[in-house]
Amino acid sequence: MRNVFADVVSFALPPRCAGCGEIVNADLQFCTACWQSLALLSGRGCERCGTPVPSSIAICAPCLQAPPDHDGVHAIVAYGTLARTIALKLKHGRKVGLAKLMAHLLLPRLPDEAGVLIPVPAHRWRILGRGFNQSALIAQHLSHASGLPVFLDALQRTRSTAMLRGANARERARIVRGAFSVARRFKSELAGRTVFLIDDVYTSGATANACARALKRSGVRKVVVLCWARVVLDEAAD
Questions:
Q1: pLDDT in tens, 69-104
Q2: Which tens digit of pLDDT belongs to each residue from 42-68?
Q3: Domain range summary for the chain, segments of one domain joined by +
Q4: Model pTM?
Q5: Pair 38, 77: CB distance under 8 Å
Q6: What's the first-to-final CA gap in the chain, in angstroms?
Q7: How many CB atoms lie within 10 A of CB 148?
Q8: Distance CA 40, CA 16 (A)
Q9: At the topology level of CATH, where does 38-230 sit?
């Protein structure tokens, strides 16, 4: 009986491409055209920030000049038109199922080491307005898929910050400086551990660096960022 019901649901509500809505073979997929339009970041990247670099380079020039506070970035795609559309559908369009898709694609990018998942926190007023924190949704799905623990409330915003859209890298760093802290009850549990910091989009690295500083001040040994998309060159995220 359950199989019959599943067949009826599948016929009435077939799985659709997360990008364009075209019918696809299974859930958590893109159609061929959308998949080909995404710039997958599967090649070699800078050891510190993940930006694509030639095979002869280990660390990119910006990271040599100003080393980030985090210890690496693993992104699925470069930020572009479709990647932006997907991120905005989740963040502002309430397409919360996309968080599961992002987690599904992030699973193979998880480093092979023990760690805990912590989402980049949103301010409570934004959560009230939106109804959820998209990074927390991704982290929860990734925890379910990987078996790694997730600490949803370990990292907190200490104050509301101005929107980062349109700000340059220096302005972004100033806006988020000191905006995060670790909840006291988690400090002993996080001491000496690796944290996989979950976010939707990595732009200049200002938010990730601010989070990493707060985590490391509380005794975390290593912070690795995992995200849906990262900006390459000078694209701007919302």
A1: 999 999 999 999 999 999 999 998 889 999 999 999
A2: 777 899 998 888 888 999 999 999 999
A3: 1-37, 38-230
A4: 0.88
A5: yes
A6: 46
A7: 15
A8: 20
A9: Rossmann fold (3.40.50)
